[in-house]
Amino acid sequence: MLWCLEAVADAGRKWLVTIESVPFVIGRADDCDLKLIDDRISRHHCEIRISGDLLWIRDLESTNGTHVNQNKIKHAELLEPNFLTYLRIISSSTSP
After folding, report:
1. Is 88 exposed, middle or buried (0-12, 13-18, 19+ CB in 10 A)?
2. Rg of the chain over CA atoms, in angstroms?
3. Is residue 44 predicted with pLDDT exceeding 80?
């Protein structure tokens, strides 16, 4: 199964990232699989893991937290296949 992350920055900018290795780490550090440049994002912010046909996301004790469908996660969270899932990896006080 192929897993991808799709981001929409605004009406004119979209990008797609394939999750090729796990854990797939998102953050600001150079060694992250997806490096995002934003001071609100921790160096190692969250990670995605695959178990069989299941996709999990876990916050890596980031400063601002990781949100799935506008709910801050505290433990590994199952991401439902075939559903649109909204991830926010910066402070919930910022605009989507």
Report:
1. middle
2. 13
3. yes
Number of residues in the chain: 96
Phi-psi region of 63 (alpha: psi -120 to 50; beta: other; left: phi over 0): alpha
Place of tokens 């995002």: 36
Q: What is the pLDDT of residues 54-94, one digit of tens each?
A: 899 999 999 999 988 888 998 999 987 666 666 666 544 44
Exposure of 61 in the CB half-sphere (CA atoms within 13 A): 0
Structure letter (DSSP) for residue 20: -
What is the Cα–Cα distance from 90 to 24, expressed in whole angstroms? 17
